[in-house]
Amino acid sequence: MSQFEFTIGYLEKRLNLLVQKLKTEDFNQQVLDEKLDIELAIKSLKFNVEYGISVSDTVKVLPSHTEQNYGEWFEYRIMNDHETDDVNKWTKVKDSKGLCITASPGDLLVIKSV
Cα 102 to the chain's mean position, in Å? Predict the structure, then answer.
């Protein structure tokens, strides 16, 4: 069982009860709000499961250009340094389509716990 599977199952059962309540009773904003919150929570937990994100992982926000003082706009390039300080031996990390992986200021970096 995955880290969030039990919780997702619990929330899905609660969601089904709320959907039935909305179908059979007069409109209730509080029930609708709870339904929407639970749908968002389920989506968030499934995202974490899909990408293997754990509560013990660390999330960092990549600094903006004003924090780094690098000019008006830039992007981060993800590099494999091959455990050397010689930048001539570094290679850009590419996705499955062969495109370089880049990031922008404000993007999130998930650091996996050991």
Answer: 16
Only one residue has tokens 């039990």, namely 6
Q: Per residue in 28-81, pLDDT tens?
A: 999 999 999 999 999 999 999 998 898 899 999 998 866 566 666 788 899 999
**78 in Cβ contact with 102 (< 8 Å):** yes
DSSP string, 18-52: HHHHHHHSS--HHHHHHHHHHHHHHHHHHHHHHHT
Instruction: Tell me which residue of 39, 51, 43 sits closest to 2, measured CA to CA.
Output: 51
The residues with which 99 forms a beta bridge, in sequence order, are none
Q: What angle do CA 65, 68, 72 make, to 5 degrees?
A: 30
Taking alpha carbons only, the member of 5, 11, 6 closest to residue 38 is: 11
Structure tokens at 44: 């968030």
Give dist(CA 28, CA 85) in Å, integer. 62
Measure the CA–CA gap between 110 and 62, rounded to whole angstroms: 11
For residues 93 and 78, the answer to whether their CB atoms sit within 8 Å is yes
Amino acid letter, residue 32: L
